[in-house]
């Protein structure tokens, strides 16, 4: 009975991958997750199988060390998540659909049982996701489909084997692999319904600080990680500038918005190869939905980094301080978070996961 009840709770949580009241979406969300559960096997079984490629076995062993580190050193949940592995034979776990109006940066939101409202809708099937994207475009929305390497069931699936390791991220560079695991476990540690920005910035702080601690004794891997984050910081600087300029355009005269918007986007695409190398493709396909979801992930990150400093770098105290913000109303939560002292030179590097 407990297992059946947990299954129902998990699938309700996973309806966050779909639209509220949409039976088709509910079906694909439930079926997609259960397919992943069925594909996942304990890491020990993969390691005992002589057919497992040596490089995969090495990565799986590394993840288990990271998993232990997360619970023992970062005060993240000690459960069975990331003790199993699945090869999905596709490049993403889900595809997130995000949308914004033609002349605005407000994300369209969908509301779900248990997890509340969020500015994305997740699909396990890319063709179905594309159909939904086209339907929104026909309604006048600007949309993006974003491949997402991992998602969190917020701990609901622990009796189903927990959230698994996936082929979609298992071969990430060491620092980014650790960051991915720590980020997703953070969602299990603290999650606030109806506040995507808070949740993602908190998980982003955990991933950044946790990965740096994990890599502290690995100077080469740490240098590679920091170089990657520095490249991402340059990208974010240009994207933030673009977002600010678009907001100014949308606040201006309606009759000039289309021309001014096109000029901003053209300039960003022209500057990207020089100022954000490696991110040219992002700017080429960027639209209002791209800028809106990016802001949701990185706006509060510096505040969480300052909070960690205020708590003396103590992970238990840090998580407890975040927990204390959870019952507050959204604006009050942000005001309290931003009111914390301390200083930090932030590295606001969002990771778009579920």
Question: Can you put this structure into words, describing what you see?
Answer:
- The protein is mostly helical.
- The chain has a domain at 2-172.
- The protein is 57% helix and 8% strand.
- The protein is built from 14 helices and eight strands.
- The chain has helices at 2-14, 23-39, 43-48, 54-73, 126-138, 174-189, 196-214, 219-250, 257-275, 280-285, 288-298, 301-310, 315-325, 330-338, and strands at residues 41-42, 84-86, 94-100, 110-112, 116-118, 121-123, 142-148, 165-166.
- The protein has a three-stranded mixed β-sheet with strand order 1-2-8.
- Strand 4 and strand 5 (116-118) form a beta hairpin.
- Helix 4 (54-73) crosses helix 6 and helix 7 (196-214) crosses helix 11.
- The longest helix is centred in the middle third of the chain and has 32 residues, at 219-250.
- The radius of gyration is 20 Å and the shape is globular.
Please tag this protein with its features.
3-stranded antiparallel beta sheet, 3-stranded mixed beta sheet, 354 residues, disordered C terminus, disordered N terminus, mainly alpha, 14 helices
């Amino acid at each position: 009975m407990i297992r059946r009840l947990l299954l129902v709770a998990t699938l309700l949580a996973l309806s966050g991958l779909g639209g509220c009241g949409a039976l088709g979406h509910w079906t694909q969300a439930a079926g997609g997750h259960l397919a992943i559960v069925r594909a996942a096997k304990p890491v020990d079984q993969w390691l005992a199988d002589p057919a497992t490629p040596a490089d995969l076995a090495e990565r799986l062993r590394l993840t288990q060390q990271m998993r232990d580190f997360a619970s023992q050193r970062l005060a993240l949940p000690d459960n069975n998540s990331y003790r199993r592995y699945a090869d999905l034979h596709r490049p993403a776990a889900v595809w997130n659909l995000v949308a914004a109006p033609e002349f605005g940066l407000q994300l369209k939101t969908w509301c779900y049982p248990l997890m509340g409202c969020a500015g994305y809708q997740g699909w396990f099937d890319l063709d179905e996701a594309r159909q939904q994207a086209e339907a929104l475009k026909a309604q006048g929305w600007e949309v993006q489909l974003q491949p997402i390497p991992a998602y969190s069931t917020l701990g609901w699936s622990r009796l189903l084997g927990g959230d698994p390791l996936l082929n979609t991220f298992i071969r990430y560079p060491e620092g980014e692999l650790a960051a991915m695991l720590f980020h997703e476990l953070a969602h299990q540690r603290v999650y606030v319904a109806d506040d995507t920005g808070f949740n993602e910035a908190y998980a982003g702080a955990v991933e950044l600080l946790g990965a740096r601690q994990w890599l502290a004794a690995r100077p080469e891997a740490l240098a590679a990680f920091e170089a990657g984050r520095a490249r991402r910081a340059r990208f974010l600087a240009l994207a933030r500038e673009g977002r600010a300029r678009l907001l100014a355009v949308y606040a201006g005269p309606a009759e000039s918005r289309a021309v001014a918007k096109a000029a901003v986007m053209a300039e960003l695409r022209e500057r990207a190869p020089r100022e954000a190398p490696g991110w040219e493709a992002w700017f080429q396909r960027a639209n209002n939905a791209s800028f809106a979801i990016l802001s949701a992930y990185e706006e509060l990150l510096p505040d969480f980094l300052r909070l960690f400093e205020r708590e003396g770098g103590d992970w238990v105290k840090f998580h407890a301080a975040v927990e204390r913000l959870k019952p507050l109303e959204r604006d009050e939560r942000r005001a309290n978070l931003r009111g914390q002292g301390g200083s930090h030179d932030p590295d606001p590097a969002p990771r778009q996961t579920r």
